Amino acid sequence: MEARERFSALIDEPVDIECLDMEEKKIVSDGELRNELERLSGAKSAEEFRRLPEKKIRDTIRQLKNGGASRRQIARVTGVSEDVIRGIS
């Protein structure tokens, strides 16, 4: 019985634990992402975007990823393959 009593006492003790806060992921529509793409790159379409210099494309994709957009959504909006997007950190 002693083990049960100790367990009950342990359960009843106040605990001071800090939990990690989870960041809420913001959902962005494709239209909003297109607007952000135009703002960051100046390209008004996926075709225009793909004609930009490679460094500009990579920098823009990096910013979109850091902003919370998924690889799949970036691929859909930019026309750049998910594999290429995956390789950009």
Features:
single chain; mainly alpha; 89 residues
Low-confidence stretches: none
- β-strand number: 0
Strand content: under 5%
Distance between the termini: 57 Å
Backbone CA Rg: 23 Å
**Mean pLDDT score:** 89
User: Largest sheet, if any?
Assistant: none
- Structural class label: mainly alpha
Tertiary shape: rod-shaped
Work out the helicity level. 55-70%
Supply the number of helical segments: 6
Helix/strand order: HHHHHH
How is the topology of this model organized?
Elements: H1 2-12, H2 30-41, H3 46-50, H4 54-66, H5 71-78, H6 82-86
Helix pairs in contact: 2-4, 2-5
Fold and architecture overview:
The protein has 89 residues and is mainly alpha-helical. The protein has a domain at 28-89. 61% of the residues lie in helices and 0% in strands. It has 6 helices and no strands. It has helices at residues 2-12, 30-41, 46-50, 54-66, 71-78, 82-86. Helix 2 (30-41) crosses helix 4 and helix 2 packs across helix 5. The longest helix has 13 residues, at 54-66. The relative contact order is 0.13.
